[in-house]
Fold:
Amino acid sequence: MTPARAVALAIDTAEAGLAAGEMPIGAVVVSGDRVVGRAFTQEKALGRRIVHADLLAMQQADAVLGFSGSSEPLVLAVNLEPCLMCLGAAITLGVGRVYYALESPNDGAVELLARWDPPIEQEFFCRPTEIRAGFHRDRSQELFRRYANGDGPVGMRAWAARLAAGDSQRRQ
Structure:
């Protein structure tokens, strides 16, 4: 499956989350051409914070694949840059590639991962070999624009508005 197609599936999932009243963040985990995990963030429905789309999708993939994992490289596709918690889970699951639509300057962790320097990088516990952004950026921004104009918490709507506006400047 192409990176663009995988991110498109993640955006479709984010759309379902928005329709359910959640933040528009969706993720899929792909093994070969098979989706083995798919979820949107469910903070509102579950009343919890550690229910990010990427984490939930990876938990589903882990349940499907079991401890032995997959013979195909795993791909995590998300419409928003993964946070540190989700990238840590991706490393643990053995995700080889991460693709996303839109940078998340406040909590995205791709830049942090680039600085990660373990003394020994194990074959079974290592950073993804490929991380790329920008797939369907406009489509993802439109989801955040719609969320920002909705009735979610004021702080989250302001955050979504910054994402929709393309405010992806990181602190230097």
